[in-house]
Amino acid sequence: MVGLEMQVAGAVAGALTMYLGVKRYQSGCGVQLVAATEPSDSFMAQCGSANMRALLETHAGGLLDDQMVPTPWLPSGMLQTVYCTMVGLKTDASTRVAYRRELLTLADQGTVSVDWHNEGRERVALVVPGLGGSSYEYHVRALAQRLGARGYTVAVMNHRGSGRTPLTSARLYNAYDTEDLAAVVRHVAAQPGVRHLVAVGYSLGANLLTKHLGEAGAGALIRAGVAVCCPFDTAVAGRALDARGWLNDHVFQPNLVATIKRLVKRNLAVFRAADLAYDLDAVMRATRMSQLDNLVTAPTYGHKDCWAYYAAASSAPYVAKVLRPLLALNTADDPITPMEGVPLEAVRRNPHVAVAVCRHGGHLGFFTGLKPRIWYLDHVATFLDAALAHADTQCASGADEGPRLATPADAESFAFPFAPYAIQLDFMQRLFEAIEQRSLGVFESPTGTGKSLSLLCGALTWLRQHEQRLAKQTEVADDPAAADKAGKADEPDWVRAYARRERQRKREDAAGERETRQRRYDAWVARTRRREAAAAGQGAARPNKRRRTDGGDGDDGLSDSDLLVADYRSGSDGSDGSSDADDSDGEPEEPRGTQIVFASRTHSQLQQLMGELKRTAHAQGLRALTLGGRSQLCAHPRERLRPAAQLNERCLAMQQTRAERCPLLPARRTPLLDFRAAAHAHGPADIEDLALIGRRLHVCAYYGARAAAPAAHLVAMPYNVLLSAAARQAMHVDLRGCVVVVDEAHNLVDAVLAVHSPVLDQPAVDRLAACVAAYRSRYWRRLSPENTRHVLQLGALLRALTRYMRGVAQAHRGAEGASVRVLRVNAFLHDARAEQFNVHAVARYLRVSQLGRKLNMFHDRHASDAAAGPPDAAAAQQGATSPAAAIAALESFIACIGSPERAAARVVVAADGGAARLKYLLLDPAEPFAEILRDARAVILAGGTMAPADDLVRQLRPADRPDDARLFSWPHVVDASHVCATVVASGPTARPLRFARADLAGSAGLSDAGLALAALCRVVPGGVVVFFPSYALLRRAHALWQESQVLARIEKAKHRVLAEDNSRTTGGAAEDILQEYSRCVAQRGGAVLLSVVGGRLSEGINFSDALGRAVVMVGLPFPNLGDAELRARLDYCDAKEESGDMGPRARAMYDALCMRAVNQSIGRAIRHRNDYAAIIFFDVRYAEPRIADKLPRWITDAGSAHASPLKPLPFGPALAQIAAFFKRDFASK
User: Fold this and answer.
1) Of 148, 694, 1119, 1160, which has the maximum CB count within 10 A?
2) Worst-scoring range by mean pLDDT, 342-356, 630-644, 714-728, 1054-1068?
């Protein structure tokens, strides 16, 4: 009996010991979270939560509470990893999925495949496998099945040659280049019905995903990501994988190397056809991945060996730039990606990123349970659900703003400076609604209707009420009684209490946190002022003054160290190199509220806008300013006289030199803070106001305006700043949540295309090639190896471009006229023999390293040395210009062609006058404009003549954006009886008036037009403005009418005929013609001005009252179909029909280009309520429906007291109608 008791006791003790041992073992299997604890402004804006830690703890807490207890017979990381490779192609109930394969052809004609599962859902999960992986791996199929069950469409990316994807180019995938992934992301996001895109990456795929999210920043199409076993530092992972050991030598390395060898062996013909410098025999003999990378990957991307490639491929430097929720799952026992490679400090500083570390799991294993199953599947799905749901409820829908604002019903609510017309009140109300409803709105209101005032008052009224709404929401959150009233009356107390707590939490994230951030920023300002005041009082040196360590300053204050490029590490910094050196470390981001961003074409228009704003009650307490470039705001007595490009480079260079630092930009922050305070206290400030503030405070107004912009209520800027992402970043403009208003938006499409179509000419390339060669020759011993490699690559690319452009110019030499070819980007790179260059890497190096700035400084030093040297050297240097403009053009051009090729991009190669010119031609303006539409709360496009507005929207709205545009058009303020619109179908000799290209062979039509104009001048008082489609037709008509004495008959009635001439009508010459025309009308009672549609006198000129009693349109200004760039746009817009005619979309765009120019020209007349004029069309085609429908509404509505304005009339009845118009209605005026 005693023995039995002893046995029982022993069994119990053993069981208890085992239980306690298991518990002790499990206690070490929890998940350790590494994440930031500080809140983030941008994260709040995008994800609605303070940080990733809060998101995980609040909405995905199961991950943090769970334990990753490994399968008992797979207790180590090595065993977990080996088992993962063994079950790679195993199929069980948890991994059965059905795929549909899609092949994608990439920019270099390479191919990747996308395997689709569970298609047709709004949420898509993109899965990126690792090295040698594909959609058929066990863990990929398990994840695809689990995400499909959770309502996701799953798209698995198979890299080049992987998963039986055909290899169609000799370029293999790698951990360095994210272009393939970016192309797949864009393709998947553009699929119909896709609302949200998330991504999961494995191992090398996780490295690519992290790097891509860092490169894309706030513009990432991926809303949330998970990185499983991401190496982060691929050099650390490379050393771990290359270390000698039984498992590495006999399992991991052979498995990976065999995968790559199979790929190469299957595609030997592709590699041999590419004629690349690969030793394919050595590749097939390789036994380790480092050998393969030395033979193939490293030389392909310009690295000296595999270790340099591994260092460049690391995603760790990009962790700080990730602005989307990213959860990394890593294990402490991973034999391939050790924890030492995980950038934990960078993770702790970025609230968008979190790393969940498990004690066990190996590399891609995570097997748990007696029957191994993958532990993280549900946790990944739950995190992605939470990230998307939280983003939806907190920011995308705007649901936390509170109740929708009611549209003001009366004029007093808009604080209009005087009693508005009915159309002005309606304009402001519709504008208010469009902003509140987050719309793309197109507003057409003719000149004279107070459009600018209506835009300002409507937008600022919405902003004021929106801020009041946010303040009330904060009060509701802080006041329990108010919160209870906001609930339903029949709710139980506990429901009300819970709802109150939830509202409190959300409001603290949205509004209360903003106040905290504001206090933090104000405290930083106060500390900075005290610290700098104390330093100044002690006579200390300026805080940021650089110390000279090498001596040897030249006469210009520059040393050789100033001219050296800082150490560069490929991929180390994806930030824009335009961020200037004056930005101090440690400065917190200033909290931004909702802003009105107002853009117009010219600074004079923005100055008028600020003048209008000062007339309103909104100006009281309003922080409003105008952003301008250095050329407008620089006050340096000598440097401000430089051309714009040179001034920009010189300004940036002066910040890096001790002797020449600009006195208006001190190293201390206090002067800029003083400027910021003064600009905000000033009220609405235009460029001149800001310049005066800068002179008064002795501070640079350019940098002062940048410092003042984030806290402004309204920021005005020219088109080129709004439309360029780089310019917006340089000017500290953040469009997220802002209201963007574009005035004079009729030519917005042309402006978008111009901003994104840089030009590079042959002399610029020649100068840059010589400058880069001289720079390398001078400093090659002092440049780091990485800089040397990139400078060499840039020099080689420039030499290739030089040879190509010289060849183009030589081939055209002796030919008449200009030669123009339009090529796809890849075809251009092939013809220029530049396809072997990684142009994307060159563009990134130029941007990040700021080499262009150094080259400009180097050129200036060389020029000054030559000027001080022998006379022959000075004479040789005298003709050389600063390369600043050429550098800017090169950076823009390389950045464009270095992007993954788009179907909507071409390169125009032109030769004329013995020199060649390259132009990057953007064909689709919707692509760059999409970022503005995505970030802004609402976008308002306004103008006096927006017709045809539907074409404008069609060109600017991306294909994947819903058709949510709202189009508004108002009549003119003048009564319809003040406008006489007449289509003259025939001339005095009864010959039809039609000026199509085919009708201009003879001169009879032009003769009849001259006779008709002479007759009209006898019945039309005041001035008559005549618009021709082209300068050629104007000159031909002028010569013909002069020869036939028609001009003498016109001058008999109107005293003087003046003609615009494109050979001399520039600047002052155009102003002289306009002044002479105005003088003749005022002093002699009339004159005739012959002008050209699209010329200097067709836009922005006010022909009010007697200056424009009649506007005559001769013909239709259709663009020249022989223009190669226009032809490329039309071909892209719509393929040709079999008959050779344009397709319907191309025809619509072609007609719209013509009619938009016509509408701008006829809008020069009738500028106020009491004005009146006749609009006369000398071409029967104006009565055709496809043309008439595109005329402004105030034209088509005109003529209630006359015959139908769009009915073609013979000359006699037309002349009678026009005479009756002036005699009957206005003879007494």
Assistant:
1) 694
2) 1054-1068
Q: Give the span between the Cα atoms of 1060 and 488, in whole angstroms.
A: 72
- pLDDT bracket for residue 332 (50, 70, 90): very high
681 three-class SS? helix
DSSP per residue, 765-823:
HHHHHHHHHHHHHHHTTTS-HHHHHHHHHHHHHHHHHHHHHHHHHHHHTT-SS-EEEEE
Sequence-ordered list of residues with C-beta below 8 angstroms from that of 847, at least 6 positions apart, any chain: 576, 577, 578, 891, 895
Given a contact cutoff of 8 angstroms between Cβ atoms, the answer to whether 745 and 785 are in contact is no
Measured distance CA(741)–CA(753) in Å, rounded = 19
- Name the burial class of residue 374, with classes exposed (0-12), middle (13-18) and buried (19+) by CB atoms within 10 angstroms of its CB: buried
The whole-angstrom separation of Cα 795 and Cα 771 is: 9
Three-state helix/strand/coil letters over 1075-1110:
HHHHHHHHHHCEEEEEEECCCCCCCCCCCCHHHHCE
* Amino acid (one-letter) located at 606: L
Structure tokens given for 194? 């896709």
How many angstroms separate the CA atoms of 1118 and 1175, rounded?
Answer: 19
Task: Give the other-Cβ count within 10 Å of 1184's Cβ.
Answer: 14
pLDDT for the residue numbered 647: 75
pLDDT per position as a tens digit, 112-142: 999 999 998 889 999 999 887 899 999 999 9
CB proximity list for 480: less than 8 A, separation 6 or greater: 500
Phi/psi at 967 (5° precision): -105, 130
Mean pLDDT in residue range 371-389: 91
List pLDDT tens digits, range 482-496: 445 444 444 456 555
**Coil/strand/helix, residue 235:** helix
How many other C-beta atoms are found inside a 10 Å radius of the C-beta of residue 358?
26
Are 1091 and 1117 a contacting pair, CB within 8 Å? no
DSSP 8-state symbol, 447: T
What the block records as the tokens of 548 is 């000279």
Nearest by Cα to 923 from 909, 895, 902: 902
Quick one: pLDDT at residue 25? 53
More confident residue, 42 or 263: 263
Is there a contact between 416 and 424 (Cβ–Cβ < 8 Å)?
yes
Residue 767 CB neighbours (<10 A): 19
The sign one gets for the Cα dihedral 1173, 1174, 1178, 1183 is: positive
The residues near 1010 (Cβ < 8 Å, ≥ 6 apart) are 1037, 1040, 1041, 1044, 1046, 1047, 1050
Joined together, the tokens standing for residue 863 give: 């020029």
| End-to-end C-alpha distance for the chain, whole angstroms | 132
Report H helices in 538-564.
Answer: 560-563
Sheet strands side by side (includes 111-117): 31-35, 353-358, 326-331, 224-228, 196-202, 123-128, 152-158, 111-117, 100-105
Output the pTM of the full model.
Answer: 0.65
Q: What pLDDT is stored for residue 793 in this prediction?
A: 84
- Output 922 or 46, whichever has higher pLDDT: 922
Per-residue tokens: 885:
């403009």
pLDDT (tens digit per residue) in 805-858: 888 888 877 777 678 888 888 888 888 888 777 777 787 788 777 777 778 777
What distance lies between CA 734 and its chain's CA centroid? 11
Torsion of CA 451, 456, 462, 468, to 10 degrees: -160
**Residue 254, token pair as written in the block:** 């052979």
C-alpha–C-alpha distance, residues 504 and 486, integer Å: 13
pLDDT at 215 exceeding the cut of 60: yes
Helix (H, G, I), strand (E, B) or coil at 280: helix
Residue reference for tokens 């960078």: 346
What is the separation of C-alpha 1101 from the centre of its chain, rounded to a whole number of angstroms?
32
